[in-house]
């Protein structure tokens, strides 16, 4: 049986055209995108992820899901992220210094070179606060009261790598203060503890604390300049110099990232994902209104500046955490 070469060629051309057309149609994103949060529901990282989840689909063109994997100070969630396929459909939402702390406690697990940062969405300076009914109104009054009554007061911890806890605990040790440290499963539960009066002290991002502003009073900001949202918060080191103590400035740097391998394999998809994040963060009116209402930040630094910020913060806290071991 003889085949007509022209027919064979035409059929081949048709099949090839269909194949290439299908390939062209299968542009990113062609399925849902997942954000993995390595902390529980209600904390600052979770709120960061869920705020973007609501509006990113408008600019990316795909459904966005959020998965929480809490435990071990962020280690469980980070390991869960590492198990995911290295593509643009799996995004990590975490924060430094908590991720730094995971690396210090688990050598070899965390390497920032393994991540391609999309954006630092929320830089949140650490704020030490007291319950509104606590018998002290300033950092100095708190120090003197705790010295008179060692072991009487409690501090809620939202995570072992939380910047507020790290800096506060360092300060307490330097001052020789005996305060009971009470761990909670997430930042949200830690805030609920002080909101309900179950503890008298806690510390977390200044922006995060706005959600319970009516139930607390600011004692000190671990930062080098005043915070507009907390005009009454004095800078910690301006008080601590009286005690010959200096505490490093620190913030929770909440970020989004994909794997560096994914960025290398799919550079155009990475650009598209970054563009969608930027548009949502800087142009989406619904997102702006929502974040203003819920007191969630919407900073835009982009990949390059975010990488610089996070590496510097990681290195600074890495030294601090190793020295404290």
What does this 3D model show about the protein?
42% of the residues are buried. The chain is an alpha/beta fold and 325 residues long. Strands 1, 2, 3, 4, 5, 6, 7, 8 and 9 form a 9-stranded mixed β-sheet that branches. It is built from 12 helices and 9 strands. The protein has helices spanning 5-25, 44-60, 75-82, 98-105, 139-148, 163-175, 187-195, 236-240, 260-265, 267-283, 285-294, 302-324, and strands at 33-37, 64-68, 90-96, 115-131, 154-157, 180-183, 201-205, 216-221, 251-259. Helix content is 45%, strand content 19%. Strand 5, helix 6 and strand 6 (180-183) form a beta-alpha-beta unit.
Distance between the termini: 82 Å
Query: Given the structure, what is the number of helices?
Result: 12
Whole-number mean pLDDT: 91
Globular, elongated, flat, extended or rod-shaped: what is the shape? Answer: globular
**SSE arrangement, N to C:** HEHEHEHEHEHEHEEHEHHHH
CATH homologous superfamily placement of the largest domain: Bordetella uptake gene, domain 1
Provide the number of structural domains. Answer: 2
Low-pLDDT residue spans: 18-25
Strand content: 15-25%
Rg over CA atoms: 24 Å
Q: Return the CATH topology of the largest domain.
A: D-Maltodextrin-Binding Protein, domain 2
Question: How many strand units?
Answer: 9
């Amino acid at each position: 049986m003889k085949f007509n070469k022209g027919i064979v060629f035409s059929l081949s051309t048709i099949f090839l055209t269909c194949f290439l057309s299908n390939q062209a149609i299968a542009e990113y994103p062609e399925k849902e995108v997942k954000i993995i949060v390595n902390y529980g529901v209600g904390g600052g990282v979770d709120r960061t992820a869920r705020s973007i989840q609501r509006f990113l689909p408008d600019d990316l063109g795909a459904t966005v899901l959020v998965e929480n994997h809490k435990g071990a100070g962020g280690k469980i969630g980070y390991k869960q992220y590492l198990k995911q396929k290295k593509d643009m459909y799996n995004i990590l939402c975490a924060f430094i210094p908590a991720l730094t702390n995971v690396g210090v406690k688990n050598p070899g697990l965390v390497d920032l070179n393994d991540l391609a940062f999309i954006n630092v969405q929320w830089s949140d300076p650490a704020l030490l606060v007291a319950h509104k009914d606590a018998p002290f109104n300033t950092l100095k009054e708190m120090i003197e009261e705790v010295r008179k009554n060692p072991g009487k007061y409690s501090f809620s911890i939202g995570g072992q790598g939380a910047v507020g806890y790290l800096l506060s605990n360092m300060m307490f040790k330097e001052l020789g203060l005996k305060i009971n440290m009470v761990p909670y499963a997430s930042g949200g539960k830690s805030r609920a503890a002080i909101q309900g009066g179950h503890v008298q002290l806690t510390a977390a991002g200044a922006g995060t604390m706005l959600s319970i502003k009516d139930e607390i009073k600011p004692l000190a900001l671990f930062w080098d300049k005043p915070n507009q949202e907390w005009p009454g918060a004095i800078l910690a080191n301006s008080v601590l110099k009286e005690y010959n103590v200096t505490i490093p400035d620190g913030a929770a740097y909440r970020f989004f990232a994909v794997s560096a391998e994914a960025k290398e394999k799919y550079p155009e998809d990475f650009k598209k994902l970054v563009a969608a994040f930027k548009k949502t963060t800087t142009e989406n009116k619904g997102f702006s209104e929502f974040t203003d209402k819920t007191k969630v930040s919407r900073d835009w630094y982009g990949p390059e500046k975010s990488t610089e910020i996070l590496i510097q913060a990681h290195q600074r806290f890495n030294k601090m955490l190793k020295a404290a071991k």
